[in-house]
Design goal:
Helix content is 64%, strand content 0%. It is mainly α.
Length: 353
């Protein structure tokens, strides 16, 4: 055992340890991403009174693997007028960024590949780069429909990132840290109702920001009712209209990987991360990583549920909601949050004031 510990302390051992940590996170994540596609079809089928996948494997559980095999067997077609290098790089960039972002996500107390003090800034940077995969795909395809979808997507993602940024800054002001683990710890119980941990989660004091954040991540991930970049009825699948085979599958998986990532961010920022809702038995017997997973599943269910009842927005409605409603309201709430926290820190609300 001592030899193994000494080996892990060497530079080579450190690299091996980081690779093992990455695989321990990414392999279950890829399985979850695959089964989110199955869960979406089953949930939507239940809402629309149909069966969904039920043929391949028991209860259709092998359907994601059948879909992956079908994609692998198809031919990758590259349009003759496209830029082949950028055309193939775009889906890899989209999928890769969704995976890289998980390096700073704490799935339990102390369970993060890199628990850096500026984890929120890292996620900001990664999510901002995600738009490049879409723009490159639209431009490299040499198709007016793909390019139109890429332009719509760029405008949409940038617009809603602004309001998302103000929402996250509100959370940072309340938590007092840029570290994602510290943000979760800031939502633990205190002397006021210490057992009811869920009453200290940030979605209660910042409930309007929680709603804005959830709607914004729907737009950020191009999900219905904000799936304007794909717009089947207007621009025939948008920026990836020219893609087929595994290049199309990477875009498809990238969208669902971003859904899981945004669900994890929602869990950390507003739903207490790995914390149980009640700090008493038997809730404390459940491992924190399982609570984290269950909360992600709840947010993913809301992602899927939002697709069923709501019709697609028009593009002018999408822009108006982002710039004329969410942006001023989130900015106003940011100012109010900063003012309230300043007064709390100054002792204005204390008993001795």
């Amino acid at each position: 055992m001592a030899e193994i510990i000494a080996l892990l302390q060497t530079p080579v051992g450190h690299v091996v340890l980081v690779v093992m940590q990455a695989l321990a996170l990414l392999v279950p994540l890829l399985i979850v991403v695959a089964y989110v596609t199955y869960a979406e079809r089953k949930v939507l089928a239940g809402m629309q009174l149909r069966k969904g996948p039920n043929v391949v494997g028991p209860f259709g559980l092998l359907q994601p693997f059948a879909d992956a095999l079908k994609m692998l067997m198809k031919e990758t077609i590259i349009p003759s007028g496209s830029n082949p290098l950028l055309f193939l790089m775009a889906p890899m960039l989209t999928f890769g960024l969704a995976m890289v972002a998980w390096a700073v996500i704490p799935v339990n107390d102390g369970w993060a590949i890199s628990d850096i003090n500026v984890g929120v800034l890292y996620l900001f940077a990664i999510s901002s780069l995600g738009v490049y995969g879409v723009i490159i795909a639209g431009w490299a395809s040499n198709s007016k429909y793909a390019f139109l979808g890429a332009l719509r997507s760029a405008a949409q993602m940038v617009s809603y990132e602004v309001s998302m940024g103000f929402v996250i800054v509100c959370v940072l002001i309340v938590a007092g840290s840029l570290n994602l683990s510290d943000i979760v710890r800031a939502q633990q119980g205190s002397t006021f109702l210490p057992w009811f941990t869920c009453l200290h989660w940030f979605f209660i004091p910042l409930f309007p920001m929680f709603i804005i954040f959830f709607i914004s991540i729907l737009a950020e991930t191009n999900r219905a009712p904000f799936d304007l970049p794909e717009g089947e009825s207007e621009i025939v699948a948008g920026f990836f209209v020219e893609y087929s085979s595994m290049s199309f599958a990477l875009f498809f998986l990238g969208e669902y990987a971003n859904m899981v990532l945004m669900s994890a961010m929602t869990t950390i920022l507003f739903l207490g991360g790995w914390l149980p809702p009640f700090d008493v038995a038997p809730f404390t017997w459940v491992p924190g990583v399982l609570w984290f997973f269950l909360k992600i599943c709840f947010v993913l269910f809301c992602f899927i549920w939002a697709r069923a009842p709501f019709p697609r927005y028009r593009y002018d409605q999408l822009m108006r909601l982002g710039w004329k409603v969410f942006l001023p309201f989130s900015l106003l709430w940011l100012v109010l949050t900063a003012g309230v926290m300043t007064m709390i820190n100054a002792g204005v609300f204390s008993h001795g004031a």
